[in-house]
Each structure stands twice: as C-alpha cells, then as structure tokens.
Inverse folding.
C-alpha cells in the first residue's frame, strides 16, 4: 500500500482530511466534548489568575504603608486557584476518557471489518506485518492526537492569548507585542523545520513496516529457512532494511537537534527582553516589584509549555500521518460488494451451475474460458486436469472471492452476484488441500464451523469425522493447542479437523479442493473414505489430483487451459481414450513404478 504524501504546509490537505474524518467519531459524545472544553477553559482561567494574585501578595507584603501581616485572604485565594487549575484539568480528562476510547474502539472495529470485507486479491498482495503495524500505530495515535491537540496545544494557545491580553491591558503594548511576536516566530520556525523532518519520519515508518513484514514472513517460513540453511541470508536481508531505517533515523535526529536549538534561542531572547524592560520599569518607578514577579511568573508559566510545543506539533504531525495510513486502509476499494438490498440465497436442494463462465486474474492471462457445467442437487462432480488448468479457480469463484468476467454462476437458479455474500458462504463448505487452523484449541477450530453450536454438536461432528477418539486421547483433550497454522498436528489430523468443522457447518454445497493429495497413500485412503461419507446427499464439487479418488463420481470434467475438454463418467472417459485416458494411464504407471523396489548390490 502506498503511503499518502502530505503537503508542505503547516496543515496540508491530507491533515485536514484526516481531522475531518476523525471528528464525527468524537462528536458522537458531543455533550462530553462541550463539557470537557468548558473545563479546559475554566482551568486556564484559574491558571492565569495565579500570577495576578501572586503580584497582589508581593505588593501587599512590600508596601511600606501596610502593616507586615500575612494577607490570608489572598493566600487562600492563591491556593484555591492552584487547586482549581489542577482539578479542572483532571475532571476534563475524566469526562473526555470515554470519547477517546470509544473513538479508538469504533475505528479499530471498522478497519477490522473492512479488512475482512476486502477481496482475496487484496489479501494475497498485502504484507501482513506492515498492515498490522499501520493499524497498531494508527489506533494508538488517535489517543495521542486527541491528548496533544486538545489538551496540550489548545490550552497553551489559550493561555498565551490570555497572558497577552492581560499584558496589553495592564501595561504598555510592547509586552503583548513581544509575547505574540515570539509566539509567531516560534511557531513558524517549528512548523517549517518539522515539515522538513516529516519526510524523514515518514521514511522511517515505511522502512519500519517493511522490516517488520520481512521479519514476520521469514519467521512464518521458519522451516523453509532451515531446509535451505538460509539463516544468514535472512539476517542480511533484514539488516539491509534496518540499515536504511538507521540512516533515516540519524537524519531525523539531526533535524530534531537543529529545531531544539532554534526554539531555545527564541524563548531565551523573548524572556530576556521582557525581563529587561520590566526591570527598567521597576527602577524608574513605573512598575512595582509585584509587577516584575507577575511578568516573570507569566513567562515561566507560558514559555515552559511553549517549549514543548515543537515536540507536541511533531507528535501531532506524526499522529496525523499514522491515522492517515489507518484511514487509507478504510479507503481501499472493495472489489466484491453486495448489490444494494441483495436478498439472501434461497436454497431448494443446492443445484450448482456454471453458465459460460470466463475469468482472468490479469486481463492478459485468461484462466477460464466459456466454462459450462451443472451439478444437480445431491450429485458429486469431479474436476481434473494439469496444474494451472483453472480447477481451484472454480472454488474461489463459487465463494465469490472474485467475480466472473463473463457468464454467470447460479445456485438453484439464482445468480450468486445478486444474493448476499453472507448467505452464499453459509450455503457452501470447503475442505481445502492445505488446511490452515487458528493458533487455538482443537475445540475452537472445530466449533469455528458454527460458533453458536452446542458442545454436544461439536463432539458429534468430531465423531462423524473420526477424530473424537484422537482428541480424547490427548493429555489436554479438547483444550489442546494446535499451534501456528495447526503445525502441531499431522496432515491427516488437520484434515479431520477440517472435515469436522465442515460437518458442523452442515452446508448444502460441498467443495473438496484436492483435500487429500498432500497426504501419504494410507492416510489418503482413510480420509477419502471419510470425505465420501461427508459428501453423501450433498451437492459436491471435487477438485482432484489423484484420479483414483474420484472414479465413483456422477460425472468427471477434464480441464485444460481454462476449458472443459471432456466430460462423462469414469468408464465413459476411459472408453474414449482421450485426455482423461492419458492422465489415468500416466498415473497408473507412476503407481506401478513406485511399487517396484529397485534391487541394488554391493
């Protein structure tokens, strides 16, 4: 996925679009937002009142005409303002907590649902590690953006404007002018250098996601790495990505150092000039010591948070970048979508029909060309052919992972493009060649076929799949963890879990996609017998590699280069001595060759 590039302005179009996209999630709790903003302003008013009271206390104690008594009322008011400033801030955070966390939850759930709604093409092309990083950083950045923008930058700007107003009203205009000038120069410089730094940070993010994707891909293929002894190759490839990230990180740090020096210089100059002018006013008698103390307190109170404004702005920009990447996922096109108001599939037996179906993953490479066949309700039709003939594509099209580019697929006379995808997929079950299981318990993986099924129904499905005895013989029984992608189970055990899962789903249409071709001959025969039981009275499409497994099918389709070149029963096809006969003869010869043990001598 290509990252979105931001403009060079302080708030580029992409930043504004991201904020506009985020605001509706916050505005859902508008009453809490308004109350939190009111508490924010009240807290800042209390904070600005503290230096003013401090001035009155100092002037009272320093007055020659007043007795040397402690101004208790002023001190109590000073303490109350201190407490109010902190209390309003804490109350604001409490009030706004639900707004922030609900926004994070809703956006996270929306992205998760959207990812599951995207086409198989997107998921085959994606890099899982990179996307999970984008989601993680994006959701985390929502909280960061809200806390920084609303509860750090906004209060600081309100405080600066309040201080500038007080200085303008109580003293000459130069104090307000120095304050506002320092603020403007500081912000312009911060925004300019931060925008320059953004490209380095964006590059770091991209390289970080790339390195993460490579690392996850390498670890998922741990056994393959070991088979070929390529540990050093993988380490070097990973280090190459880290090296590029290191270079971008160094440039980013250099830019940060330059920005910090520039910010510190502006603050130091502004503070020095204002204190020099205030000191001169005290010496000339135009101002009191209390005035000097108040101005100094204002400067400390105002410029300390201002000193972090650059950090806040950088973090806000980074949060916007991360959130934009998150929203990019939501903008990813749904290649397969339900038509508006699509009805559910109405089943009346499960007759499956391909009508002149054509399809291509890439327009220049057609996979299916005018494929037509019918599987009557309750019948088993097998599809055979060489690798790349288009057999597995039939299953993907039935599930509507892709839409046909020509013709139509119909179930009980209904075009599957005109019914809801959820009802379509409820009607179809599949036992794939490579069964992938969740890294959870055996019970969870079987119950996944129908999550609302009772425990007894799950047990009966396992019994029907002939795996119940195996499960109950395990030390942890149903709670046995199957490992990443089910790697702790053998091929036959995984296939039985897949069969049990499909039996629990109880679909009207069953697809067996070379469901036993990866097993050894003995296990394959056992699994095939179980699959035959599963297929009883179900409309079944069997995609086969070994022809011996489909001789009892009601019909056999032979595919070659995306077309059906022959069809008929096993006996009919052998009598024709065409493509099927050649495949059968070849496989029989391979079986005979394997059974003949070569005799070797010394």
């Amino acid at each position: 996925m290509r990252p979105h590039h931001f403009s060079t302005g302080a708030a580029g179009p992409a930043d504004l679009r991201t904020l506009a996209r985020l605001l509706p999630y916050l505005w859902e709790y508008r009453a809490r937002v308004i109350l939190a903003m009111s508490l924010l302003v009240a807290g800042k008013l209390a904070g600005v009142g503290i230096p003013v009271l401090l001035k009155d206390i100092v002037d009272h104690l320093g007055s020659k005409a007043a007795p040397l008594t402690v101004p208790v009322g002023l001190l109590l008011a000073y303490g109350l303002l201190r407490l109010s400033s902190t209390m309003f801030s804490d109350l604001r955070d409490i009030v706004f907590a639900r707004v922030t966390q609900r926004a994070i939850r809703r956006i996270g759930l929306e992205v998760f649902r959207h990812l599951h709604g995207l086409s198989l093409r997107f998921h085959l092309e994606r890099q899982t590690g990179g996307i999970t990083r984008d989601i993680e950083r994006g959701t985390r950045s929502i909280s960061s953006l809200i806390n920084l923008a609303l509860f750090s930058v906004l209060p600081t700007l309100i405080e600066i404007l309040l201080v500038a107003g007080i200085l303008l009203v109580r003293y000459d205009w130069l104090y307000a002018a120095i304050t506002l000038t320092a603020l403007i120069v500081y912000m312009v410089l911060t925004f300019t250098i931060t925008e320059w730094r953004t490209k380095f940070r964006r590059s770091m993010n991209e390289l970080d996601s790339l390195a993460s994707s490579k690392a996850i891909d390498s670890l998922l293929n741990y056994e393959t790495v070991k088979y070929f002894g390529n540990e050093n190759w993988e380490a070097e490839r990973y280090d190459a990505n880290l090296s590029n990230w290191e270079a971008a990180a160094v440039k980013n740090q250099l830019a940060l150092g330059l920005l910090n020096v520039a910010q510190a210089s502006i603050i130091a100059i502004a503070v020095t000039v204002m204190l020099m002018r205030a000191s001169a006013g005290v010496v000339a008698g135009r101002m009191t010591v209390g005035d000097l103390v108040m101005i100094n307190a204002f400067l400390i109170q105002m410029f300390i948070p201002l000193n972090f404004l650059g950090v806040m702005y950088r973090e806000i920009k980074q949060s916007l970048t991360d959130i934009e990447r998150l929203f990019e996922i939501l903008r990813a096109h749904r290649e397969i979508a339900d038509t508006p108001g699509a009805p559910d599939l109405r089943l009346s037996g499960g007759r499956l029909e391909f009508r002149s179906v054509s399809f291509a993953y890439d327009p220049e490479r057609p996979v299916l060309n005018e494929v037509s066949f019918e599987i009557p309700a309750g019948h088993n039709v097998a599809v055979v052919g060489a690798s790349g003939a288009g057999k597995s594509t039939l299953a993907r099209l039935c599930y509507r992972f892709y839409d046909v580019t020509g013709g139509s697929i119909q179930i009980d006379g209904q075009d599957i493009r005109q019914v809801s995808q959820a009802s379509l997929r409820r009607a179809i079950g599949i036992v794939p060649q490579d069964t992938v299981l969740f890294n959870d318990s055996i019970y969870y993986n079987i119950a996944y076929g129908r999550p609302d099924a009772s425990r007894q129904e799950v047990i009966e499905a396992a019994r029907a799949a002939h795996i119940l005895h195996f499960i109950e013989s395990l030390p942890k029984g149903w709670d046995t963890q199957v490992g990443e992608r089910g790697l702790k189970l053998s091929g036959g055990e995984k296939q039985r879990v897949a069969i049990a899962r499909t039996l629990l789903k109880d679909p009207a249409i069953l697809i067996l996609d070379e469901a036993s071709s990866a097993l050894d001959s003995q296990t394959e025969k056992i699994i095939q017998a179980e699959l035959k039981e599963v297929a009883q009275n179900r409309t079944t499409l069997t995609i086969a590699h070994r022809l011996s497994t489909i001789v009892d099918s009601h019909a056999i389709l032979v595919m070659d280069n995306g077309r059906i070149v022959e069809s008929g029963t096993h006996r009919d096809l052998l009598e024709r001595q065409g493509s099927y006969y050649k495949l059968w003869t070849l496989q029989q010869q391979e079986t005979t060759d394997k059974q003949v043990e070569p005799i070797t001598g010394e």
